Sequence to fold (960 residues):
Amino acid sequence: MTAEAPAATRSTGKIARRSPITGRTIATVAIVAVLLYLVIGPLLMLVFSTFRQTHGVLPFSPNATWTLDNYAEVFLRPSTWRLLGTTLVFSLGALGMSFTLSVLLAFLTERTNLPFRNVLFVLIVASIGIPNVVLGIAWELVLNPVNGLVNLFLREVLDLTGRGPINLFTLPGMIFVQGISLVPITYLLVSAAFRAIDISMEDAAYASGAGFRTVMRRVTLPLLTPALLSAFVYQFVSVVESFDIPLIIGLRGGIPVLSTQIYISAKPPGGLPDYGLASTYSLLLLAVAIGPLLFYNRIIGRSERYATIAGRGYQPRRIRLGRWKIPALIFGIAFVTLSFGVPALTLIWASIQPFYSIPSPEAFARITFKAYGELVANKTFRDAVVNTIILGLSVGAMTLVLGSLVSWILVRTRSRLRIALDVLSFLPHAMPGVIIGLSILLIYLFVPIPIYATLWIIVVAMSTQYISLSTRLMTAGIAQVRVELEEAAETSGASWLATIQRVVLPLVRPAFINGFLLVFLQAIKNLTLALILISPGGVVLSTLVYQFWDKANTAATGAVGVVVLSITVILSILLRRANTRGEAVVS
Amino acid sequence: MIQVHGLAKTYRNTSVPAVDGVSFTVPQGGFYTLLGPSGCGKTTTLRCIAGLERPDAGTIQLGKTVVVSDRIFIPTQKRDIGMVFQSYAVWPHMTVFENVAFPLRVGNRKVKGADVEERVMTALTLVGLAGFEKRMATQLSGGQQQRLSVARALVREPDVLLLDEPLSNLDAKLRERMRSELLLIQRRVGITTLFVTHDQVEALSMSDQIAVMNGGRIVQEGAPRDIYHAPVSEFVAGFIGSTNLLQGRVTAIDATGGLATVETPVGELRAPVTGVAVGNEVNIAVRPEDVVLHRTDRHGAEGPAVANLLDGTIEIGLFIGVSVDYHVRIDGQVIQARVGSRMKLEPGDHVRVELPADAIHVFQLRGAEGPLA
Fold:
């Protein structure tokens, strides 16, 4: 205010407040309401169900009674603690494996003169496109003790009979496949961490007289630690909630973990579902998943303490591998073969064989594309393709629109509802998919909105699950649009809506398209929600491949697997091209 | 002592060499500066000396040890150097003490327990950080981190100290103070120092010798005063502070051969020359602070009895405290003059502009960025 303020303002002594109800306020309240419905609704339903006696009845049925039996059954049984132990061994084992591989691979591609490192980077990241259900099935085809290709081969070579010698349906088997499946994202997180280190920190250590090992041990690793820890916490949630591989490999071997135990309770192979019991297991899983997240903020705080003045962006000098060049290259190729080559080739092989057998001259003579022909003629398959596309588009559109609005309010306004929005949009990240699936199921058994047993219940569930991802992506995108650009529109006389439409949206379009593709990809890959929520008649590609596999129709499994894999890998490559090297692909 | 000979380095994926045949010698205990704009190759040269880059050709000798030659490449950690980085590169996961102790505890010349403490404390005292040793490195301010990084570079008592733009991340006031502090420390320790900067004030105020670099080559080497007053090319003259540059032609040289008459757009000027002949195209440089302005009214029509006196009109005056920068228009050319702020002139005032003959530097055209022959 200058001294020459208008007389009228001075005489009244106050400035007229903005009208309390604006379009902005209404929009904010509406969005909070939608998020409450999507996120808190399911959680409430879950907690409610844990206190209901539900043997053979639904939780809100008049025949159900209030009870603490579910808690007694879950927490007082030794089997629960065994289940918890298995879950932890499985999770930590898979994480240990994926982090060891990822740190080695990231070091090789980011810091050494490894030949073909850029190709290696692309191939490692491309397997983000492999759905876990497909990966699990492919490895089952390779390593199952009855007719897994490797086992058939080993038996022939070693002159063995019976089953094995390798049995995938064990805890180490689960850990192995899950570990491989976690690598692409872990690798992206770790290589980003390598890139974030100010290279002069290492140069200074060399200039102090320290050799390579000392620099790695005393400087590089300590500097990486905060980023590694936060990646570990992030990936811990992913592995604890993982469902596909425990379902395909673990349950075959009679090894349940928490996520599959919930599924068994809610959808038992024989008998009636016990939703109360499933809900109570869910609370336990939620506690396990959220535990490390509580440390997350403290770790992030610590890593900010490491923030230092950044130097010029030198291209880091690459360490000369010398005589390690060939072994390092072999390691890289071996990993990519395991993570991508073996699953893809096995599926293709299975899809072009009338019956599943080891590659041999006779088997090559039997190659046929009949399975693909049958697929195209199969109405279920065609329905599945259409449903999958509708599902991906709807989930992508819904979460991205909602996520954009939430992000815009978070970044740009000082609304008092911001904290609520922040928490609501983050919560689903910590909610395992099985839990979201189960609680959404319970809601629509109860709420008279007729979407139960349709595709739309899956759309709602996936929207809940991916709202945190889309909000995260869009917050980053919107934060990049300088606020002055919006203010310039407003001072030019544009309304709030016009500003959003004409200025904000065009500028954040790249982030939006990128986010849309990513959510679309996740929706196609997601077996958990589809399997829990799908009605007997309905089908999407991920459940179709699972059904064929469950019925031991190997050729059809292979063919659908190849179709799904082609779509998702192409999508993930599109995503990478829309991105600068990897940053935002991390989900 | 640092001896660099014929150093060359071209980065992958580029066609222009970053360093293109650089040779120089830093005498024992000397403070030598590589000065130039970004991309001139000064930092690459320094990093080659540190062993952080591998040159394509050339030799480098530190003290009595050849560290780079056709057959030899001694890695960084085996070179007897201390280095201060632009970002300071203090390790955030260590305390101040641990940072400084690190060079004593690693490598092949490890120091025993009690000695470590003594030497760390000596180094910290030298840079004025005694008493801070228990703090985490990142709890220090920018200036303190900078000193810490100097202490860490000196604690091993290396043969040479390499400074890579160490002052450029400090704010203006602190930078000025650190200039003298850094120089005092260097003088006290007597360590051979190579300093890289793009700031001509830093270079001029701190160095024994300066090498001005451009396009991967050294274009002029000399003491700060020589570089400042006798630039050999337009590039050097322009890079080292602001200067008035005029083009001209030698029309006469007097009998003794020391004083020439040069025809310029502002008129005929007399100036001392060496190695030019009548008819040569030359450049003329005059520093703004050497230009003298006379009010026309005081001296009247006859003016003072000196040569190189030109009539001009004040265009604008920029008051900068200790002095005023006047832009004076003379026959379509603008000459900058920096005079004491007590002389008050207004735009439009007529002045007589004196370019003292001994302040005029005449050099032959060598193209805009030509290297030294």
